[in-house]
Amino acid sequence: MMSIRIYDTMKREKLELDAIRKNRINIFVCGPTVYDLCHIGHARTYIAYDIIVRYLRSRGYSVFYLMNITDVDDKIINRAKEAGEDPLALSDAMTKEFYKDLDSLDINSVNLFAKASQHIPEIITQVRQLIEKRCAYEVDGDVFFSISNFADYGRLSHQKPEELDKHRIDPDPRKKNPGDFALWKAHKPGELSWESPWGNGRPGWHIEDTAITGCYFGPRYDIHGGAVELIFPHHEAEIAQAESASGQHPMVNFWVHTGILRIKGEKMAKSLKNFIPIREALAKHHPEAIRLYFASSHYRSQVDFDEENIRKAAQTIESIYAVLNRIRGLAKTSSNKAESNKELISTLERRKKEFHAAMEDDFNTPVAISSLIAFSHEMDKIVDKGTCLGDLKQVLTTFAEFGNVIGILGAKEEEKSKEAMVPDLMNLLLEIREELRKKGDWTYADSIRDKLNRIGIVVEDQATGPQWKRSMSKP
Question: Which CATH number is 5-284 given?
């Protein structure tokens, strides 16, 4: 196994992955605040971590991937008031919609989703620990964390407390320091609440995550992920809470952050009302096209949302599928005694080495995808020569290996049996169509082509005969 290097936001450099428990990795990623449907910016972030976890598992790591669901929050309460709903009923409904979106994008690597509302005892325990250690104080039923008692506050964002963005700090004259943040919020009329030693109330945003990770991972774990805009105040607050409560540091070995998704020059956000819901994007584009589009940029880079580039990603996948389906057909008919092809094996090994080298260099998906595309083109040319094709099963295995990491080139489990029949059925249909063309029945032959096109299969008549491919664009 080659060494994997990951960029750590804290140290601002790439470091070799060294798991706390040998080949077992615990990773936590901040989930959504479920007051509305998730947008394509969320998709960018969660696809990135899905690919990271897929790759780690493909290299033999046992990964436990934990994601929280923020279902107790001011935004949820305010939205529920507007709609005349119970806040937890609203958040539960939106959580189910979130799961549907993840499933549609084939994001399936998360082991456990943990709701804040289901971890109130753990939250209260951690708040109590912080008060006992004099890292927090209570005022009128509210509990605040005292940043003055945590010397390293600001080390993730590389700022001193006085330099931190004051626009992201809630003003409150009762605080000892303006930067102190809420751990527990006293109950207000009409809001949901739970009993606590400080009176009825609910948790603050930051404490939800550290209570959850402490519950499942303990005081230290390997990787914490989230969007870059969460560095301050959210992740800065998490470090202060967790390390103060446990007395152990660092809380996390690697801080991994995804870049911002922009639309028309602005960050995509619900608050700016410029967001595109995931399901709206899926109504226009195939999920594999969306995955390839986002993976074509490095996870840490800023991306400008571009519909045309998603369509180009769809065309790229179509061309790879065309080669893949061709090789699948040849692999079924080739003899087990067919000679080995040295050029094929050499190309295969070189591209695999490139793919893994890219992924092990801070999960560099753009370079990895370039290797996949080049591999597809080269295999197509080698197959054109039509000699020494005894290694096609290895080629298919390599396509599957690359595709499984990126989350493309494969059907879901319930579709696999049907998927396996497609090449045979298509070849049969094309044979029937060719017979019709030879007999001069152009109307019926064109009808077959047009009907296939309407269900997402494109037939192209070439000098060497008809070829078919999937269309990644929605018909």
Answer: 3.40.50.620
